[in-house]
Protein 1
Amino acid sequence: MNASSKPKLSFGEYLPKIVVAPTFVATLIFIYGFMLWNAWLSFSSSRMLPKYDWVGLKQYERLFANDRWWVAAENLLIFGVLFIVTCLVIGLFLAIFLDQKVRAEGAIRTIYLYPMALSFIVTGTAWKWILNPELGIQRMFREMGWESFSFDWLVNSDMAIYTVVIAGVWQSSGFVMALCLAGLRGVDENIVKAARVDGASMPAIYRRIIIPGLGPVFFSALIVLTHIAIKSFDLIVALTGGGPGYATDVPATFMYTYAFTRGQIGVGSAASMMMLMAVVAIIVPYLYSELREKKQ
Amino acid sequence: MQALKIQNVEKSFGAIKVLKGINIEIEPGQFLILVGPSGCGKSTLLNMIAGLETVSKGDIVIGDRTVTHLDPKDRDIAMVFQSYALYPNMTVSQNISFGLDIAKMPKPEQKVVVDRVAKMLQIEPLLNRKPKALSGGQRQRVAMGRALARDPSIYLFDEPLSNLDAKLRVEMRSEIKELHQREKTTIVYVTHDQIEAMTLADVIAVMKDGEVQQFGTPQEIYDNPENQFIAGFMGSPSMNFVPCELSKSDDGYELLMESAGKVTRLLVNQDIPGLAQYVGRSVVLGVRPEQITQVSEDKPDSMVMPCAVEIVEPTGPDTMVTIRLNGVKTVCRVHPTAICSPGEPMFLQFDVTKAVFFDPETELRIR
């Protein structure tokens, strides 16, 4: 009995490891392996096809000498900052309004959260029609009689990046709302009562007690939104296609264009390494603080 | 002038009446405790005094002002919550001074108040900490400090000790009492713990089902409960209720008591006119554990009867002995030296001079 039950027990112990192993191997190869491969390519002279030679930082020099890269980087900065800040502000206010015990809260919450269920391709396409001067808002106002009305941001190379912000905010602020709402629900209602007895008005209670208490929520939202912003590719492809010209290029579309359509794999790899560095710069401090908190 | 007057106050949620006409008045400096089982409406009443719940009917008067429909901030009150409700993002001193800051008191004056309160509650070393870094007892002190800083005309306490462990609860209880005696503050205090009510209160309002069952000093309520609910709720271990037959005897009334198969006649040596109409009928005898003791010579008025011991529970100073009287489990408080083992018979002495009687149907006191 004892002899036969022993191996069974150890199989039970190994089972979780066996189940997880294929995913672990796949992650190792397809994420970290390819990251390393990409890093190698960024130090090679690859053009149409990968080459495995060593040219040092030459591809990075070419990248930094490229005007289009700097347009993409600047666009990412504009888009990232506006997208994140607007999402946080709108999401917070939606959550505060929803937390006032409104009727049909469940339905309203679903409506605001629904854009999350769409892919950025769908969002981008829908907003392309809405913002298209010939089809959408501009035409609607002109047909209503306001002949001089003009809203041509989508085709205006100075303003096009802001249409990306609008579409991105529309899609993601519901997500921030959900996070903030969960945070607000976690506030002990006695704290609000105590502050009311202390003489504080509701705006003062939100400003001085509740919103400062949502710090961790904002932090989580910030992390998620930041990496959405850095990775953003499909929204831009669907909404503006990087245009007019390359006015709304971001690093992701830049990388794709160079690596896969213009036969500049080396420059493309260097661009994606820059994006990886940006993500690492945000995620690593986050992981560090998370893990440290768990240890305590 | 009364410090607080609650006049015919009612509260309904839709068709459900949770408070049915409450009338309470207390003097300045009095410590009022609202006590009752959960769901009796005591916390609702406290929230209404605070202005956190609307009043459906009736009036609340604090000092000489009717505050029934005023905002909490205009009522000159401070409140301490069960969950402490400290502001988690502020330090202890910011917590204490928050109300003063809202009232636009200048910072140097705020500091003076914070220092005075911190000294009073001995929390000076904690002033720069966040609530997260405090123990339960410390948080409790800070919550009280926040109330003290505002120096209101009435303090409201909502089960402030319920989240503390037993030892700390006893310590904080006596500190609250000391604070009240020293500062002569007017306090309304909600608890479900009858020991807290007995030890702290100047006056107690025992509540049940949205009504005040009895209003009086702790001793009045302990000695002269209006009905069986109050008698059973106040006191620990609680009063024994023994149903028994009442008959007339030469000296007054007699109760038929059966224990361990033996029937004894227990003489009622009290003058209770109301008992006359219960002769030949059943009444409920209410007798506290400390009124059934071991036999001693210095109580000539007492009755002695043999009982079978079922359970023995030592508490240290006294031992609780459970016997069966007329088929009902009855707890007696016996000196540890006089104790015998479960299953053995024991002579116990009944002091019925302070016993009370209730109508078996209405559960009201027979007087």
Protein 2
Amino acid sequence: MIGAAAIALIVAIGLMLIRALSGPTLYDRVLAMNSLGTKIVLFIGVLGFVLGRPDFLDISVLYALINFVSTIAILKFFRYRSFQVPLMRKTNTPRQPRAAEGGEDG
Amino acid sequence: MGYFLGLIVVLGALWLGLSGIYEPLILTLSVISLLVVLLLAYRLDTVDKEGSPYARTPQLFAYWAWLVVEIFKANWPVIKACVSADLDINPALVKVKTRCESDLAKTIFANSITLTPGTVTVEVEGDKLLVHALFEEDATPDSFAEMDERSWRAADGRQAQASKQVRT
Amino acid sequence: MGELLGFLMAAKPVLGAFLCLVGGTLAIIGTVGVLRFPDFYTRLHAASVTDTGAATITIIGMALLAPSWLVVFKLAAIWLFLFLTGPTGTHALANAAHTAGLQPVIGRQRDLAEHAEEDA
């Protein structure tokens, strides 16, 4: 039954890849990658129990952290086109938001 | 100083729980890495009420337990909307006013709204939150009142009582 | 009492595996929602089903299967990370899309579909 759970998570990951590949806007793709990361974290954990090696959970912890940091980094980069901007609202005035950015095929 | 102590205890517990090997060499390495992290946190100037809010751990965990139940209750309508044959959703943008004052309380409130399926915080400005809801009829301002009250009490309880006394 | 405890210990792996399966099913449901919903903001809600419900149930299932307390602690740490970082990432996404000027679809979707048919 735990094997079936792993297969269900793989199916979910595969379906989410469709959204990541076909998402009309950049944000749909980032959302798909973020959600994909959560599913992969769960899948690595379940896979560890399928194979009888719960040590896989260490990889899971790392993946959860990297997933979050990468999501924030991608969003920051596509908003400011640079990593050199501090993420504080008081210390900088963000550039005029560009309406076309969301519609561009990222 | 108390914040440093809280950070040390939590980081030490995290290391001991995640490593599981208690040999002298590994423990020495753990102490070294803990010191490096403390130095970095000091240099980044993040060791304050927000960097280590462990003084209010009991209240925060009580709030969290309530929140998990609330999240599971809110999961049902979204799951039903996902699998039902016709798309029976009614998305809307709602403005919500919060009574939370400190940044920590506001963060907790906005994050709990986002964590609950069916509602997402889109923008926070001052004490007003712009919330996108999947069902307009479920997202009346009253439905957020209890969460607001509880997160306020969890994050800045004593200040809250003081301001209440001033008000009455 | 002892018999009940013995039964619970025997049922634990089965229950854990079953909860993992339920979590996997919820993940599929959330993904189906992400594929079906009409615009970006509504897809966020479907994705949060995976982030909260599926993750919690799967992790509880794995905790029931866990051979030692260390594994349970690691699972608790993963759960804590997911619950702290998930809403932050979702809010960052929604805020970025809102700042870039992406407009949400508002109103009951069934009525909108009917209107579209009438217009056509």
